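[job 0412] stage=fold_complex status=start
inputs:
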Amino acid sequence: MSAVLEVSGLTQIFTSRQGPFGLFGRRDLRAVDDVSFVVARGRTFCLVGESGCGKTTIGRMVVRLLRPTAGSVHINGEDFGNLSGETLRRKRQQVQMVFQDPFACLNSRMTAAEIVEEPLQNFGIGDAVSRRRKVARLFDQVGLPQHFRARLPHHLSGGQRQRLGIARALAADPALIVADEAVAALDVSIRAQILNLLKDVQREIGISYLFISHDLAVVRYLADDVAVMYLGAIVEQGPAKAVFAAPAHPYTRALIDSVPAVHPRNRRRRAALEGEVPSAASLPSGCRFRTRCPFATDICAQAAPAMTEVTPGHAVACHHAGSLPRFGAPGPGPAVAPDAVA
Amino acid sequence: MSAPLLCVENLSITLNTRGAPVPLVRNVSFAIDPGETLCLVGESGCGKSLTALSIIGLLDQSVMQVASGRILFEGRDLVTLGAEELRKLRGDRLAMVFQEPMTSLNPLLRVGEQIAEVIVEHRGVSEADARRQAVGLLDLVRIPDARRRASEFPHQLSGGMRQRVMIAMALALRPALLIADEPTTALDVTIQAQVLTLIDDLRREFGTSVLLITHDLGVVAEMADRVVVLYAGSIVEQAGVNGIFDAAAHPYTRGLLGAIGQLNSGIRDRLVEIPGSVPSPVSLGTGCAFRQRCGAAMPVCHSEPPLLSGADEHLTACWLGKAGAMVPA
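[job 0412] stage=fold_complex status=done
writing structure:
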């Protein structure tokens, strides 16, 4: 079986109590609603969307920092949903995480070498000598000089810390790395270094990534497969090439259209999306994007659209997917400049 | 051509330490014409925000200071201007919008009152009159249902709306210069597009000059008339926006453009990286600050690079240009 991660019907409902002591009842917030996708071995699957769309919550459920309200998470064919306690801790070796802020996610009292060695100790991998050898190899792999081993995190730059975070994630030989906005906090010149590193590592050891990002340019560069999220649900999903070349959901089109030009020549007046994302505590009826959608009609308020394939492997949840103007053609919705799709 | 509205001349900012003062911004000069958008672009720690804060007089004087240089605005030098006079200018002729609108708004005041406060303070109109103007301003920055929103507190608004409130407050008295420090960095990409469009529309409508500070070359491509590229406290390149995107001369600018151009091209080859990271201002020393990371560094780069001037006021601080078509400025 080639699926490293299989997520099916994943749902997370946060409940908050209203008023003092919850006297005014409870309110449900559907942060993630019935999300399914598969991450294949050696591939990069990107979840893309804006703040509050639920992408981080999915990442946290995959590594089981958060228990799903419903749905299942299979890693290497094994159901993670039913695991708990020590079994879960041991199985977590297969899925490791790289975080957004390399300043916040490293223990400031541990040396760089200790940080990388810790997972090896936690999972009881090797003896002291072989662990030291492995740490040295990981430093080489992520491009950290060996003389950094005794340094503390605050002696490292942002880019070096992110390399260290990647070395730590790789230490236990996981099958999957969940990277949540792993390059968002980095400067432009450093971002390219880390993106290259992630690709190099994947080429060398065939690891899979679940890469969570709001940045379409980064997603386009990295993703083999992509899922676009809006308000807790996937609205479009498929091979990255197909989704970026022919986005079929009005929201995906608007997202791509909102990315600033890469050259002043391509400046244009954007038919920017109106309004803002509604609250997940009071979802619109029917299609959740309809309140901002330039193509919305009556049916969009009545029924939630199902995921439908437009081309093999490329699916979209939109009632009007078949009748939207050709992508890039002038119409009521956002148009897209040639440089953004070429 | 009209006289520039703002002229920054040889501005240097230093950090006070027990030892020798550490230079954070070194010899920065640029000018903004009326109605023009100038982008200050660079990575974290390059001095772009400090430059902006020194213009509006908000540098933390207890730890840093303007060591030399002049900031001429409407004929007056803001560096030597008294605190009281500066206070009168701020909010009136000069206004600023910050990155994180939640921390720049008063959480205990309704947004309408906060906008009205600026108007009462500077124009001495009645509170009721100022509040009416505040609602008009919220309307101007396209906040739907402005009258109701005016009586809400900042935490009741979304990030995009808070930034609109900041812009409304900044534009309340029709300033000649709007300084926007990473105004869309904290916002989602669809909201960023809305806010950038808004800033540009208001600039057009009122002829306001905009000093836009950003790390994002995409924002520069959308907004700038002129561009100043900063690296480790110094200007490495300055030109019209097309000059930067079509004929970048400095290896640092080229590296930055290479990285984003490739990312957006859809081609998935290995990205061109700029090796290493930005040096600390404490260990800068003399010569070109970029030389350790520069693929084209030569022995001569240990001396301060010359500022060379090309066509259309295209300035580059690089020894490479010496051999090329540019001439000393």
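[job 0412] summary: Chain B has two domains: 6-93+177-275, 102-174.
[job 0412] exit 0
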